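Most newcomers find our protein records easier to grasp once they have seen one. Read left to right, the backbone structure tokens trace the chain's path through space. Nothing more is needed to start thinking about how sequence determines fold. An example says more than a description, so a record of this kind follows:
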Amino acid sequence: MTHVAVVGGGPAGLSAALFTAKNDLETSVFDTDETWLHKAHLFNYLGIDSEDGSAFVEDAREQVDGFGVDRHQDTEVTGVSESGDGFAVATEDGDEFHADYVVLATGADRDLAEDLGCEFTEGGVVDVDVTMETSVQDAYATGAMVRAEEWQAVISAGDGAAAALNVLSKEKGEHFHDFDTPADAE
């Protein structure tokens, strides 16, 4: 089974994990719980009138857990490297995980992307295409690491979704759209 490793548990990482796990890809999230959302209150997130950032993160975690995401809470990733046909993800505990795809969602911390060999723009952010894929094939960067100043939860969540949909399109061999209908909720 295809495995996606998501490094970061904020809106970008959890959004990516939601889409990949919901569509039957094995998904692991490594989360240090240092998202800036713990300092935020959401009034400007579409569909949310008013919600504390920490409550939003808890809701998002419950949602991805419901789709079977393997969440490694309070686990720091110390390195990501290319390995064979995918990536090796090393944690502070000395564990190593293999993944076919990696989604970096570590906020403004770009160290893992730099260590992986991702290209950067002249402005010092990770260089990605419209699908959030970096110069390293099958490695994606999302959220604040690809934007100099546009650090909004809703933008980050969209970046995570774009990365996940590109992974799913690659796996399915055609453009993939995760579009649910009311009948899907019944």
Q: What stands out?
A: DSSP finds four helices and ten strands in the chain. The first strand starts at residue 3 and ends at 7. The helical segments are 11-22, 53-66, 111-116, 153-172.
